[in-house]
Amino acid sequence: MDHGRHDNETASGGPGTRAASNAPGRRARASGRRAELGAFLRARRARLHPADVGLPEGDPALRRTPGLRREEIAELSGVGVTWYTYLEQGRDISASAQVIDALARALLLDPDEHRHLRDLAGLAPPDTPETPSGEAERPRDRLRRLVDAAAPNAASVYDARFDYLAWNTPYTLLRHDPLTLPPGRRNLLWMMFTDAGNRARMVRWEPAARALISQFRAAMGHRQGDPAFTALVAELSEASPEFREWWADYPVRRFRPATVAIDHPEIGRLDLEMFQLRPAEHPDLLLVLQVPADEDGRRRVTALLDGRSAPDGDPGGAPDGSASQGGLPARRPGNRSHPG
């Protein structure tokens, strides 16, 4: 970093001054979000009748406004009336996840409304992906059709903890078959840090593994205190010296566009361009696509899927599953961002 340039810019109205000038904008956005939160609570309170939540109807003439009273919502959710009133008025008060979830239950919010309430409160989505009522099919069936349709590109879907949920045949042939992992360890981090075959196949394993652990660290920031995340970190720290060392460095980095290279035992050197997407109905899930970076790579992958040898002949694969460098393109540096 050019420290001199940074200092000069700060002194002359550079980045430091710009950061300070952005403060009013941040305050305005926070104020707008609080106002929207209050409007949402008022609208959802107004649509409820006492009978909806098990309260006696009473005399409708005594109710000056439609819906439930603030006092009734406060009592149902276990919060103070004054605090709830401030929340509806958009005042600058904090609300914990437990309280926001209690309000969601008191207001009989559906999964989409619950997620929206947490968004307005500045909280992460609910811990468990919720399936809208009336959705007949199992989400995993839908995910399997999605990854199958991605062929010949390798496709895999992970939950927030990077557990495998779905993958297609190209993924098992090019990268790894998750079914070879023990049932409790079918997880991308377990595969990356403990599977020797995957490590041998990757041209530049360490940068990819470091990028993955950085992305997981960022994801874990939304799940502080989650015992499943804590247990995964403890188990991986015991199983992998690299994971233990790099985790202690506290790396944080979100996904960057990347190309990773593998030495495949049957079709040789292959560059795969990485893409990440999230299904709108399950934004906690992560879809990773690995697309051959050129037409030759796509042709060789298609041949592999068809059960044929690569059209250009022996790519240098050895009988033990490793790949020699003879006849393969020169290795190019890979990108550090690698989930998949």
UniProtKB/TrEMBL annotation:
Organism: Microbispora bryophytorum
Region (Disordered): 1-33, 119-140, 305-340
Phylogenetic lineage: Bacteria, Bacillati, Actinomycetota, Actinomycetes, Streptosporangiales
Single Gene Ontology MF annotation: DNA binding
Name of protein: HTH cro/C1-type domain-containing protein
All residue ranges annotated as the HTH cro/C1-type domain in the record: 40-114
Gene3D superfamilies given in the database record: 3.30.450.180, lambda repressor-like DNA-binding domains
Domain of life of the native organism: Bacteria
